[in-house]
Amino acid sequence: MQGTFAINLARIAIIVAILALWEVLSRTGIINPRLLPSASDTFVTLGDLLQRAAVQKDLMVTAAEVLAAFAMAVPFGAVIGFLVAENRYFADVAKPLLFFAFSIPKSIFLPMFILVFGVGFAQKVGFGFFSTIFIVIMSTTTAVESVKVEHLTVARSYGATPWQTAFRVYLPSMLPVLLEALRISMIFNLTGVILAEMYASRDGIGHQIATWGENFQMKQLLAGVVMVAAIAMTFNELVRWVEARCSHWRT
Amino acid sequence: MQPLANVTPLKPAARAGAIEVKNVGQVFRGRSQDVVALDDVSLEIKPGRFVVLVGPSGCGKSTLLMMMAGLRQQTTGTITISGAPILQPDPDRVGVVFQEASLFPWLTAEDNVEFPLALRGVPKAERRAKAQDALKLVGLEGFGKRHPHELSGGMKQRVSIARGLVQDPPVLLMDEPFAALDEQTRMTMGDELLRIWAATGKTVVFVTHSLTEAVYLADEVIVMSARPGRIVDHLQVQLPRPRTYEMLSGDAFGALRDRIWRHIRKSA
């Protein structure tokens, strides 16, 4: 118990040290405060921005895009991943192709999404979906492969129906890997949507951050970075917390 | 097809737990040639007997056990349990205990034991009560709330046995259940299994690689040979019960073990 406490303490110390270094570098002018506003100024600006209706609206727009893309990419990718894992022929055909597709930086397709969908909600959701689906497919494949044959045999020997096997064996077996997949997919998804917003958009927090950058509003820019980082980390930690509770049956 | 009435015999004492294997063969179709895994195996097991299948790797002893469990279909022949043929898994007639790692790690010990009952929609309270009884029988009272990773190898196999017994089937099939355990635990578990068997009166069919384990546990030992899988000997173990550690070094025990070993050496 003391071990984890000491480790947590060390972690907090590192965060405090980074913030302090940031503050000192800016305040003493070692780094031009116009380029790097101090930490305290940034957090004050962050509080200020969060009060603004325009920023709240941008956050809502981004959240809607992220959730829409995620809600489509995860089930769709999961089904494809499941088919790839369960069907030998499909796996032989599709697996190398998926690896090819996965290796391509998705950002180079962004101009095409703008041409096809125009600038707006669909373009961002589409690009978010595209950025996410490959990692979902590949993770689901891994998850299905983590189901043990022994467990399936046990279920069969006690007369489990296909539905019972799906919900009582497949799903719980796959859960630890699926949760990790969910977490990593969200990182890809968020990156995709925000990139699409920064590239061409009228709203969304990514668009705001890009605009602040272009206008050299460093305080707002940094506050925006901290905001998005905090949101991403919160989601990540939430899933990791659930993951930790089922890690003991991970194979 | 047999009439349905034979599935649950009217006179359970007469046939429940009897196993009859008749001319069972298994052929795997290979690319260049067919492989005969089991060749015309016939065998009769009376209710309440403790029967051990031994033989070299590839003799088809596990395959035969999986057929009795309804988890595999033989190419030819029939297997009858409690008077009716086994065509698919039937948890009412047969409980199966697998090798280690067959427990679901996401369920507690009692939830693992309840699993077969949960599949059939048995109410929670009844399920829990039966699981408690089964856990008590295997000596794991009070361990129900633990997850498999919190249990030792021997305890995990006790949970597996409890799961196999929870529906009170007349037959318990065990596929090398103690193979992954260390020597001391294995001995203890052997004694435990004999105690449970004596308390429940089940027919037990037990597959193992260990000749000592075979003779120590069994009423009858069935020795199989490999390629093709055949029964080469069927020994009656007349050693008195309860079996004790001292018997292991006795002449009778040694003679039986030697007889099995000679068969296996020939075939391997």
Automatic annotation (TrEMBL), chain A:
Q: Which family does it belong to?
A: Belongs to the binding-protein-dependent transport system permease family.
Supply the InterPro entries for this chain.
Answer: MetI-like (IPR000515), MetI-like_sf (IPR035906)
- Asked if the record carries the keyword Membrane, the reply is yes
- TM ranges are 6-25, 59-85, 97-118, 125-144, 181-200, 221-242
**PROSITE patterns registered for this protein in UniProt:** ABC_TM1 (PS50928)
Indicate where this protein is primarily found. membrane
Q: Where in the cell is it found?
A: Cell membrane
Domain ABC transmembrane type-1: from-to ranges? 59-239
UniProt xrefs under Pfam families: BPD_transp_1
> What topology does it adopt in the membrane?
Multi-pass membrane protein
Please give the name of this protein.
ABC transporter permease
Gene Ontology BP annotations: transmembrane transport
Automatic annotation (TrEMBL), chain B:
Q: Which InterPro entries match?
A: AAA+_ATPase (IPR003593), ABC_transporter-like_ATP-bd (IPR003439), ABC_transporter-like_CS (IPR017871), ABC_transporter_ATP-bind (IPR050166), P-loop_NTPase (IPR027417)
Cite the ABC transporter domain residue spans from the record.
19-251
Q: Which SMART domains does this one have?
A: AAA
The role this protein plays is: Involved in beta-(1-->2)glucan export. Transmembrane domains (TMD) form a pore in the inner membrane and the ATP-binding domain (NBD) is responsible for energy generation.
Q: One GO biological process from the UniProt record?
A: quaternary ammonium group transport
Q: Which family does it belong to?
A: Belongs to the ABC transporter superfamily.
Q: Which GO terms describe its molecular function?
A: ATP binding; ATP hydrolysis activity
Tell me yes or no: is Repressor among this UniProt entry's keywords. Answer: no
Q: Which UniProt keywords apply?
A: ATP-binding, Nucleotide-binding, Transport
Protein name, please?
A: Nitrate ABC transporter ATP-binding protein
Q: Which domain of life is it from?
A: Bacteria
